[in-house]
Amino acid sequence: MHRLIENLSYLTVRLGILVSRIVVTVVPRSWLLALFKGCADLGFHLFHKFRRRSIRNLEIALRDQLNDGEIAAVVRGTLRNFFRDFVELGVAYERPLDRLRAEIPVSGIEHLNAAASKGNGVIALSAHLGNFLLLGTRLAAEGLAVNVLINQARIKKIADLRSHHRSRIGQRTIHARPRKEAFRKLIQALRQNEIAIMIADEFRSGSGVYVPFFGRTVIARRGPATLALRTGAAVVPVYLVRDSTGELRLVIEPEIEFSRTGKTKTDVIENTIRMTRWLERTLRAYPDQWNWMTIHWQEGRPDALTESADDDEEARIDRCDTTEETK
After folding, report:
1. According to a count of CB atoms within 10 Å of the terminal CB, is the N or C end of the chain lower?
2. Is 137:103 a contact under the CB 8 Å cutoff?
3. Residue 175 half-sphere exposure toward CB, CA atoms < 13 A
4. Are 212 and 276 in contact (CB under 8 A)?
5. Which among 318, 301, 248, 13 has a CA at the least distance from the CA of 154?
6. Peptide bond into 96 cis (omega under 30)
7. SS3 per-residue string spanning 65-97
8. What are phi and psi of 93, to 5 degrees?
């Protein structure tokens, strides 16, 4: 019975990918965008838990710059952004990388080149921001070797199928589990001076580092800081966001200056704080392009800047992106 369910799930995913590929080649892009915008607006009314939690988190984080009406509009915008991601992903899948390179401009490529020139690899620090699903593909369009850390599907056949389709759009998949294998592959990629994309913005409970975020406290993933300290890799913020017309733009910021005192625990905490500061600043600039539901605020911790338990080195490569496995 279990095998039957797995096979049916696999066939469903495979059929869904096939149908999606046909649809994006037949239906005009403008029609698809209009359809998915309508679906997002409907979802805003139907997804009660998402709407309430997102609004609450935005009220906590950005009450100093947004009123009630603007907060509701931002939450609606986050759903529109997410639904639009899949249209753009499907369209990009049917186009050559050089066309994608021409359609999506880039700013700050010199920062990535400078980081890569050090020869220790580059950790592309990103978030579920803008169209994060296409981030690796747009970087690959620059002729770069790109690896994406993914929290894979539980069914191996589905995970392998999705990895195959990512490879067709320039993204090499590194599965987050088993952890030791993921750790080994990430180190290998960085030693070959490649790029490893790590999305580390899911502030949930569990192991991690307690850091300040919008004046409160959250548990941040420590994987990027740990990996960078272990390998000497540069950490460069990279993200794919929309402009006022809805078109995408690749933004590459200067390398984050890391603390490397040799005191591992202290450096992991300090560098995770620095990366979280970058994220907060970026989210203030693009609040409607990030999923605000993922924040779980931590209350009543006077020792907030203390690394939690579980110091096993491989375990520090925390699971990364789960939403990407929906494609």
Report:
1. N
2. no
3. 15
4. yes
5. 13
6. no
7. CCCHHHHHHHHHHHHHHHHHHHHHHHHHHCCCH
8. -65, -30
Amino acid symbol at 93: Y
Burial of 219 from C-beta contacts in 10 A (0-12 / 13-18 / 19+): buried
**CA dist 171 to 36, 141, 188, 196, 246, Å?**
25, 10, 16, 10, 24
Q: Interior CA angle at 174 toward 128 and 88, to 5°?
A: 40
Q: Which of 237, 273, 17, 272 is nearest to 130 (CA)?
A: 237
Which residues of the chain, if any, have pLDDT below 50?
302, 304-316, 318-327
Cβ neighbours for 138, distance < 8 A, ≥ 6 positions apart = 100, 101, 104, 106, 240, 248, 250
Q: Which of 131, 24, 22 is nearest to 78 (CA)?
A: 131
The answer to whether residues 159 and 271 touch, using CB atoms and an 8 Å cutoff, is no
Instruction: Quickly tell me which residue has 């080994």 as its tokens.
Output: 184
- The Cα 259–Cα 270 span in angstroms is 7
pLDDT of residue 320: 44
CA-based nearest residue to 316, from 271, 280, 282, 277:
271
The C-alpha angle with vertex 258 and arms to 255 and 262, in degrees rounded to 5, equals 150
Q: How far apart are CA 13 and CA 102, in angstroms?
A: 31
DSSP string, 1-67: -HHHHHHHHHHHHHHHHHHHHHHHHHS-HHHHHHHHHHHHHHHHHH-HHHHHHHHHHHHHHHTTT--
Distance between CA 246 and CA 230 in Å, rounded? 39
Three-state secondary structure along 110-139?
Answer: HHHHHHHCCCCCEEEEECCEECHHHHHHHH
Distance CA 231, CA 187 (A): 7
pLDDT at 300: 57
Contact criterion met (CB below 8 Å) for 298 and 218: yes
